[in-house]
Amino acid sequence: MAVYTEVTDEALAEFLSLYDIGTLTAFRGIAEGVENSNYALKTSEGDFILTLYEKRVNKEDLPYFLGLMEHLRAHGLPCPLPVRAKDGRNLKELAGKMAAITTFLPGVWPRHIKLAHCEPLGAALAKLHLAGEGFAMTRRNGLGPDSWSPLLAKSLPHADSVLGGLGAELQAWLAQIEADWPKDLPVGQIHADLFPDNVFFLEGQISGLIDFYFACTDILAYDIAVCLNAWCFENHAELNVTRSRAVLRGYQSVRKLSDSEINALPVLARGAAIRFLLTRLYDWLNTPEGALVTPKDPLDYYRRLRFHFAVSGAGAYGL
Amino acid sequence: MAVYTEVTDEALAEFLSLYDIGTLTAFRGIAEGVENSNYALKTSEGDFILTLYEKRVNKEDLPYFLGLMEHLRAHGLPCPLPVRAKDGRNLKELAGKMAAITTFLPGVWPRHIKLAHCEPLGAALAKLHLAGEGFAMTRRNGLGPDSWSPLLAKSLPHADSVLGGLGAELQAWLAQIEADWPKDLPVGQIHADLFPDNVFFLEGQISGLIDFYFACTDILAYDIAVCLNAWCFENHAELNVTRSRAVLRGYQSVRKLSDSEINALPVLARGAAIRFLLTRLYDWLNTPEGALVTPKDPLDYYRRLRFHFAVSGAGAYGL
After folding, report:
1. Are residues B127 and B171 in the same domain?
2. Same-domain status, B96 and B135
3. Residues A308, A266 contacting (CB under 8 angstroms)
4. Which pLDDT tens digit goes with each residue over A250-279?
5. Domain for residue B140, yes or no?
6. Looking at the domain assignment, is residue A131 inside a domain?
7. Which residues on B lie below 8 Å from A40 (Cβ)?
8. What's phi and psi for A217, nearest 5 deg?
9. Range of the domain at B129
10. Is A24 in Cβ contact with B108 (below 8 Å)?
11. pLDDT (tens digit, 9 = 90+) per residue, B65-107?
């Protein structure tokens, strides 16, 4: 929910004159996306999204994100297509921020996850992975395994204020995840944040995958582990195996998992759970009292992590 | 900037089935409007706005607001038209809130006010006043003169924390405004909150007036006074007379002001300034420290009020 940067009429008009997308007919801030300012832009040619990149996004990563979307779209994935300005560039400056226009995607993200969403989700994720092949750029996962220990260190002094013993438990769990982390799994371009609000559906089909601003080059199956955490839990504690089986079935209908990928699912799921637990814990401890935007409860992911540690093998996910 | 209520897919689908506006193609939260939850709704038939009324809006006022928009639109004003459901009603329930669908209006609200906006603004306001004639319902101005004293009383204990002596100064000013308040000016349906973010322009013309949720039945010229405050000041302290003259010229090109209305402009402008000063002061003193939404500085309207008290007659506004 976010519009952080106001754009004046003059600046907008000047910005749009750099593009060949018709004349402006409407411009409204969108209350979605937490990292950037997003506007719905309507012109005589159709609907677009204007994104201004705020300080949490590293400018140097923008060519990767925009290039990846362009590559994925060219390879058939329904993701936003960055629109190139008259000079051929897809990244410009507006109101003192880096800015891009992308195409508008129809669809609605599911507020209630249903089983019927899960197989299409898995298939779309596998398509994303295949479509990413051949993309020449790479980006290190800024929230990958080597970031978790420093992230935990920042929250450690106050972790037990959230739950008694949480700090020590997370240290022990993290040490085990780091020791078990797989080294030789297939790597490629991953979304790394494919939560329900980033997946649009229309009449039961996936109509759009959005928000590639955590995308990076990392273990493909880790992206599945993120989705199992984000889409398949009930009450944050219990895996709905019917759903996770559907995600995996959808995925494998497009890209077959190797035995090593399947065997790594539990540790990847633990890793994905601790990644979101750690960022939420940090936000929880560092959001001022009384802020109107309530940080997400980190314990939702603590419960998931506990589940993944009780699991003895990939069978628990329905394989 | 606001989406307070989440709408599930199922609830949305059921809600839309009550209307005859085509099939859903997109649904996004809008980051504008502070009182209600607003969504941009796109269907096979076009663009709409879905509004969920949050607790700051009194349910009993909704038939007035929606009825007024329908009346104004029928009389040629470019305001949102409430869409009637199949059963003929324009007000329904969704996600536990009262909800309405209105038509989408093109245009962009001016982030930078320019002289060229002011004459069309004045003319549009007068058209609103004329279009409101014949509307049978009335609504008391909940933020009218009789609300100001109780509102000030709530902020008085802490007013001086904002500016030394502010409390006593406001008490004295308010007493004078109350004593001078005009009794016999023409009354009708007024917008009462026609700030720049409620006025859309397209190619120099007004394409839409929105957000009628402060509308009420009150002194017509008070609406002009609100606009003079909202559109014609520079640095919150200096009236730009060229702009205020343009607003008044635009207004009078459609509806001629009487001598009594003209003579009352200074006290009406003082009243409008103290109304926004008092609500902002209250929000300022009652917004928790560190909240992500910064309340607006009440002193912006203190400076305007000071200007209006230094004025000896309507000539100061360019008449």
Report:
1. yes
2. no
3. yes
4. 999 999 999 999 999 999 999 999 999 999
5. yes
6. yes
7. 28, 30, 40
8. -105, 110
9. 115-317
10. yes
11. 999 999 999 999 999 999 999 999 999 999 999 999 999 999 9
